[in-house]
C-alpha cells in the first residue's frame, strides 16, 4: 500500500474499508478523529495519556487537527502528570482525561502543517527531564526511512503487535506511526505477557518489543511456521547475544535492532543474524564521530538537523558504527533510560534527604545522607523501612526502573582530593566488607495503608513494594506479582482481620483479569459467607478489577 505522510493522511485518505486496528476501518478511524477533534477544539495544550493504541492514535491526530500543542509525558505517574497539568494542559485519553469517544459531529480534516511541534521528554544530565521538541514532519520522515529498510522484511499487510507502550518515541513510531503511514493494521492492546503476545502472532506479522522482554524467553518452545512473525524489532538497549540467539530460535527469524534516541528518533538498524554486527544508518542519515569519540548524526528527522549524542563510537569499515559505551550518566535499567542525576535530584527534594548519589551495579543503587529529620526517621524505622519510604516517595515521579533497589545511609558522601565524586568510592560502599546492606530481609507482604470494615468482611488498601521477594524471576524487566502471592495474602489478611484461622486454601477458584505490578496501591476486598463456608476476595486498582476469586473454608465453623 502507498505510504502517505501523517500530515496528509486524513485529508488524502485511504479506501473506507482499509483496516486500521482490531477490525476498525479507515472510515471509522477518520470519523473518530474528526469527532474528537471537534470536541477538543479550543484545547490549548493536550497531554496524550491514552494507554490503548487505537485511542492513542485517535487522540494524537485529534489534538493535532484541533490545533492543540501536543505533549507526550515521560510516564503516567501521578506526580509527573500533576506537574505537567499545573499550567492548564489537558490529559487526553487516560484516567484523568477520559475525553475520547467514538464518532460524533466531526470537523473538516485539512492537511496538517509538517512544522507542527510535538513535545517529548528525555532523561537530562542536569537532574531534570529534558524537553525535546520534534516536528510532525520529522516523525513522518522517520517513518518513511523506517519503511525504506523494514518494508522489504514486513509484508504490506502485516499486522503490527507490541509489548512496548506508545508513550515513548520508539513505541510511538513503530507501534502507531509507521503502521498508519504505510497502511498496516496494528493491535490496539499492548501485550503485557508473552502468553498473550505469542498467541496473537501469525505468519508474516510484526512484533515491536524490547530487551526487557526478549531476555525472558527461557522455556518457551519455538513457534510453529503458522505463527512465526516476519519481523521482530527491539530497541532501548543492546540485546545480549544469548538472548538474541534464543529469540531467533523461538520466533524463527533474527531480531532486528533499532538504534536512536528521543532527540534523533530511529537512526540506525542491525539484524542479529550472528555475533555483534555494526549499526547501519537508515536512509538519509549521516553518521560520524566527533574528535572526543562521540556519535554525530545528521538527518532531516533529527532535532536541529544534527545531533551529537553521549554514545562513544568507532566507525566501521562497512560504513556503519559500533557503540563503545556512554559518555554521560544516563543508565539503561531494564531496557529503559534512567537519568542518574534526575533520581539524585528527586531524592534531594525530600525533607528526609540532605544529599544523594545514585549508580548502577547490576541494579540501581543509592547512597543517601539523611537530613536531621531523616536521621530521626532512620532511627525510628530502621534502614530497611526507611529505604522503602524513600522508594515510595520516588514512585510518584519515577517508573519502576528508576527506583533504587539497594541503599546505603552515610553521614557524608565520599569525595576525592579535588572535591570530585568518584564512582569507585561510591561503589565501594556496596562491597560485602562495607556497610551492612538494608535488603537483608526483603518483604514478602504488602504495606497496609488503610483498613475499612464491610458489612460482611473487610477492605484494605495495600501498597505493593518493588523489592518484594516474590518478584524474583517473575519476570526480569517486567515484574509482575504472582497469583499465588495474591492468594496467600488473601488468606493471611482474612485470618488477621476476620479471625478465620484458615490453614490452607481449599476449593480454590480464581480469575486474573489484569496483571498486578509492584510499586502500586491496590485495594483488597475480603468477604466471608459463613453459611456457604466461602471466603471471596477481589483486588482492585482504582475502579478496575485485577483479580478475584473464592476460597473454601471447610475447616471453619459457620
TrEMBL record:
Entry annotated with the keyword Transferase: no
GO MF: medium-chain fatty acid-CoA ligase activity
Which BP terms from GO are recorded?
Answer: fatty acid metabolic process
Per its UniProt record, what SUPFAM superfamilies does this chain match? Acetyl-CoA synthetase-like, Thioesterase/thiol ester dehydrase-isomerase
Q: Which residues form the AMP-dependent synthetase/ligase domain?
A: 111-278
> Which Pfam family is an annotated match for this chain, by its short name?
ApeI-like
Q: What is this protein called?
A: AMP-dependent synthetase and ligase
Q: Which organism is it from?
A: Azospirillum baldaniorum
